[in-house]
UniProtKB/TrEMBL annotation:
Cellular localisation: Cytoplasm
Subunit composition and interactions: Homodimer.
Keyword Acetylation belongs to the record: no
Main localization (coarse): cytoplasm
Name of the gene: argD
GO biological process: L-arginine biosynthetic process
Domain of life the protein comes from: Bacteria
One GO cellular component term noted in the UniProt record for this chain: cytoplasm
Name the UniProt record assigns to this protein: Acetylornithine aminotransferase
């Protein structure tokens, strides 16, 4: 008989953990669908989805089944060998996208790190040492490694760690003239999120992405789309860039790809992938059989017309209610986003108070997110039931009533 689990409480975080997070006062211990229970047994509706990760909610039977089946077969063999789940998931991703080759890793930051390294390697091999510059958007977010925070364009994440990676510049999102002025034959890549997630749930403009594609082609630069947050069905299509009809050279995916199990992927073409020859880049856990088995199950559920059309219908249900609540209580100036990545922009009187909205929602047993200080973000399960949407929105309205009448 196994020993009982030691009792833990929220105060233990402050005693034992590095203080780089400030988690909520309660500890979730169980989830089912779009409901979560904490240590005291309190039930919450989850509109946060683990920050756009829990694409099928909590403990979805297809994912639990895939994980437990694989757990009794093979956990890890390293990349000295390949394994069946890796090959199955790679084939599913290639069949469903523009890509011909896949590199697996563990997080969005690692997928972006691989993408940026590949872009520089391609330019180095084809054009020489001088072609290494990367252009990204201000207020973008691409991860927390030194390279990816340098590309991210947010000083609060990149300052204070010594010299930054050189050769990176930033332009305002959706400013095609600025991109045109910045790009040159020294540019190896332009990196964009089709929907800026952490930057405030901002949609790219069609003309901006199209223009970026044309400028990259004219300057022999690669177009990289970071779809870590916007991908895997969240927009109502498997990847958001297809809404715009613009195809990248490299695509990164993570978060929802594993539905809660850590996995990420960099997707590209055969012609570019050959520059990552044996030994040029690597990872210990990338392509792990457990992660890839779960990823296969996620793909099988998400990449269906039924699920993707359901995302669009749920978007409308959320938007209608949130626009009414925003107007009725003077809280939001705009509701924006695609699919089930929704951002509610706080009205002038509430600017900077997104965290207050989160706290008020939690008091009404609802989990929501923010995207910066001025945007309340919703990223629920793509298969969240209508009853959970309605109950969660009712709790959200109660929270707004208390907040705005205080």
């Amino acid at each position: 008989m196994s020993a009982p689990h030691a009792q833990v409480e929220r105060a233990d975080f402050d005693q034992f953990m590095v203080p780089n997070y400030a988690p909520a006062a309660f500890i979730p211990v169980r989830g089912q669908g779009s409901r979560v229970w904490d240590q005291s047994g309190r039930e919450l509706v989850d509109f946060s989805g683990g920050i756009a990760v829990n694409v099928l909610g909590h403990c979805h039977p297809a994912l639990v089944g895939a994980l437990t089946e694989q757990a009794s077969k093979l956990w890890h063999v390293s990349n000295v060998f390949t394994n069946e789940p890796t090959l199955r998931l790679a084939q599913k991703l290639v069949d469903a996208t523009f890509a011909e080759r896949v590199f697996f890793c563990n997080s969005g930051a690692e997928a972006n790190e691989a993408a940026f390294k590949l872009a520089r390697r391609v330019a180095h091999d084809r054009f020489g040492d001088e072609k290494y510059e990367i252009i990204a958007a201000l207020n973008s977010f691409h991860g927390r490694t030194l390279f990816t925070v340098s590309v991210g364009g947010q000083a609060k994440y990149s300052d204070g760690f010594g010299p930054k990676i050189q050769g990176i510049s930033h332009i305002p999102f959706n400013d095609l003239d600025a991109l045109r002025a910045a790009i040159s034959d020294r540019t190896c890549a332009v990196v964009l999120e089709p929907i800026q997630g952490e930057g405030g749930v901002l949609l790219a403009e069609q003309s901006f992405l199209q223009g970026a594609r044309e400028l990259c082609d004219a300057h022999n630069a690669l177009l990289i789309f970071d779809e870590v947050q916007s991908g895997m069905g969240r927009s109502g299509e498997l990847f958001a860039h297809t809404h715009f009809g613009v195809t990248p050279d490299i695509l990164t995916s993570a978060k929802s790809l594993g539905g809660g199990f850590p996995i990420a992927a960099m997707l590209t073409t055969t012609d570019l992938a050959k520059h990552f020859s044996v030994g040029v880049h690597g990872t210990t856990y990338g392509g792990n059989p457990l992660a890839c088995a779960v990823g296969c199950a996620v793909m099988d559920v998400v990449n269906t017309r039924e699920t993707l059309d359901g995302v669009k219908a749920r978007h409308q249900r959320f938007r209608t209610a949130l626009e009414r609540i925003g107007q009725q209580y003077g809280l939001f100036s705009e509701v924006r986003g695609l699919g089930l990545l929704i951002g509610c922009v706080l009205a002038d009187a509430w600017k900077g108070k997104a965290k207050d909205v989160l706290v008020a929602a939690e008091k009404e047993a609802l989990m929501v997110l923010q995207a910066g200080p001025d945007v309340v973000r919703f990223a629920p399960s793509l298969v969240i039931e209508e009853a959970d949407i309605d109950e969660g929105l009712a709790r959200f309205e109660r929270a707004v009533v208390k907040l705005t009448s205080a």
